[in-house]
Amino acid sequence: MDKPKVIFSFGTRPEAIKMAPVIQTFLRDPDFITKVVLTAQHREMLDQVMDIFSLRGDYDFNIMMQKQTLEFLTSTVLTKFQEVLAQEKPDLVFVHGDTTTTFACSLACFYQNVPVAHVEAGLRSFDLRNPFPEEMNRKLADSLCTLHFCPTIHAKNNIIEENIESKGIFVTGNTVIDSLFYVVNYLKEKTLESKRKDNIKKILVTLHRRESWGKPIEAVARAIREVVLENEDVSVMFPIHKNPIVRESVMPILGDLSRVSIVEPMDYLSFILEMQSSYLIISDSGGIQEEAPSLGKPVLLTRLVTERPEGLESGVVRLIGTDFQTVKNEITKLIRDPIYYQNMVRIRNPFGDGKASKRIIKETRKFFSLPVPEDLQSLSDFV
Fold first, then answer.
1. Pairing mode, strands 92-96 and 59-60
2. pTM score
3. Residue 62: left if φ>0, alpha if ψ -120 to 50, beta else—which one?
4. Which of the residues 16, 100, 208, 289 has the least number of beta carbons within 10 Å of its own beta carbon?
């Protein structure tokens, strides 16, 4: 039998972070031919991650442009990826998560009768407009995929309940924890350490979701402003998204405060260092909900719904929305109530154990009827 050829396709920094350890695992396995396709629907931050993990793309669509629309992204990725499929003739394509790249590449594979493996399958908010368009992207991708690698049992149950046809639904843990452990070890080897002043409680903030543009982000920014003005031991680090709508909402409210540092988007290494040195994190990000528990950091999630209920159930994440008074009250409580704070940080990470990539290659080998090495045979589903 010829070696199975697998293609990994992705286009954003979060996808790259979560796909990188899986790609590294496959590249080390001589029984697979592994190719990487970058759509680069987000360019700059994607390249940073590729460098950290010493990866390169075999194809690079480089499609990012100013004010790109979802229609442009979908149609362009669909067309270009179909050309790659025709040339490479892969046996399996890996997609990740919930981006436009995820959906468009899955659709191209469906048209060409190429099986697809979905990493981080099964996440659901049960609201097609929150987050938008990610909820639709992941639902459609799951319906087109052959293998489903779910981060948690919740995600697996979502696939089962939707009666999606599948050759296998596996609980692997989230690959972002594999990446986090890799980077933390890398930082130790480079003797790079996070620095935090004991008397200052630093709040790390990231806000970017499309459904929060405008007034919701402004309300969160106003709440942060009042907390800073009322608490001299609080500072804020805010790597601000490049989207001008986000910047126009945040800068007039927080830009004049001396204890608020609004900086350009950080590379992944720098951001992990900031996470390590933070006291708490305010975010509408998906990945941060998964990473922060492994670093012992509580997360206040400024969204109305989340497709990652495990964080809420464990208590390490609190869903607070974007109401001004609610956001202010929740930040203040974490700052001033040490017992409440400690109850959020002393929790096992419900999202992964750093072995997701091994579980994925184990099940992929079985899919192709390849023998499973001894070191993988005893590896059970993540629970």
1. unpaired
2. 0.85
3. left
4. 208
Positions annotated as catalytic residues are: 98, 120, 134, 208, 210, 241
Q: Are 239 and 265 within 8 A, CB to CB?
A: yes
Terminal CA-to-CA distance of the chain, rounded, Å? 35
H-only helix segments in the chain:
13-27, 44-52, 70-88, 100-112, 134-144, 153-161, 175-189, 215-230, 244-254, 268-277, 287-291, 309-314, 324-336, 338-345, 356-367, 374-377
DSSP H or E segment with residue 31 = none
Strands 92-96 and 116-119, sheet pairing? parallel
The dihedral region occupied by 315, where left means phi > 0, alpha psi between -120 and 50, and beta the remainder, is: left
Q: In this structure, are strands 260-263 and 280-283 parallel, antiparallel, or unpaired?
A: unpaired
Alpha-carbon distance 85 to 313, whole Å? 41
d(CA 381, CA 171): 5
pLDDT in tens, 257-299: 999 999 998 988 999 999 999 999 999 988 899 899 889 999 9
Lowest mean pLDDT among 55-59, 97-101, 194-198: 194-198
Which of 78, 98, 45 shows the shortest CA–CA distance to 243? 45
Residues 6+ apart with CB under 8 A from 110: 116, 144
Residue ranges and CATH numbers for the domains of the chain are 5-173+355-377 (3.40.50.2000), 196-345 (3.40.50.2000)
Q: Identify any residues that bridge with 262 across adjacent strands, giving them in sequence order.
A: 238
Q: What one-letter code names the amino acid at 293? A: P
Q: Which of 248, 232, 228 has its CA nearest to residue 240?
A: 248
